[in-house]
Each structure stands twice: as structure tokens, then as C-alpha cells.
User: Fold this.
Amino acid sequence: MKSVEIFTDGACRGNPGPGGWGALLRYGDNERSLWGGEPDTTNNRMELMAVIQGLLALQRSCEVQVTSDSTYVLKGIQEWMPNWKKKGWKTAAKKPVKNADLWKQLDELVVLHSIDWQWVKGHSGHRENEIADQLANRGIDELD
Assistant:
């Protein structure tokens, strides 16, 4: 099974406001940059979108290391999602899960791969996280 690294970040100018997502994919010595944006969104949606788009770019099942500075994404996928699913996509407070559309999409993608989730402190000089941040901001800059 092919081994791929994905580094992701989301950004928002205003929350909600114009937002962008970025993903840097690495396979061996090859790197690929992905980015996009939405005119009216939130930072958390862009963090999720970065991971989703990174995984969608993979053409076959892979061993994937996903590195993100978003505790929202990492806790959501590793800790909160199993209970959300059991409770019909409701929180412990019985309220609808925010961004459930994206969480459900991510849930469908993660089963296709063997994923190791890694957290990195944002804006700490981590090369790939800084690139993902630049890509997310590019996603905002390129909005009409």
C-alpha cells in the first residue's frame, strides 16, 4: 500500500467570512499543492474541507499520515464522531452536530484508507504547515 503524507490548514477572514483551505500532499519526493475557497464560511469548515480535499485527491487506498493544526478536526474524527454517529449526529447536549455535512463526507473517506492523525502547533515554523497555511490564504485571495 502506497504511503502518503497530507498537511492541511484552513483559514477565514472573519468567522464567518471568506475562507480558504489548503492541502500539501507528499508521496516520496513528489509534492502536490491543493487549495480552494468559499465566500461565506467558517474556519472550522475550511479545516475540514482541507482534509476532505486532500483525501479526495488520492486515487487508491493508501497509508496516510494527515497532519493538521486543527484540534477541532483531530478530536472530531478521533474522539467525538463515534458518539455523534451513535446518537444520530447529535451532540452530547442533544443538539445537531455543526458541519455534519462535512463530517459525514469525511467519515465516508476515512474508511478507504489507513490513516494516522497528527497534530502540529500552527504558526510554529513547521514547513509543511506553513505551506498549507499559505495555500489556504491563496484560496481566499483567489475568490472573486
In short: DSSP finds four helices and five strands in the chain. The radius of gyration is 15 Å. The chain has a mean pLDDT of 97.
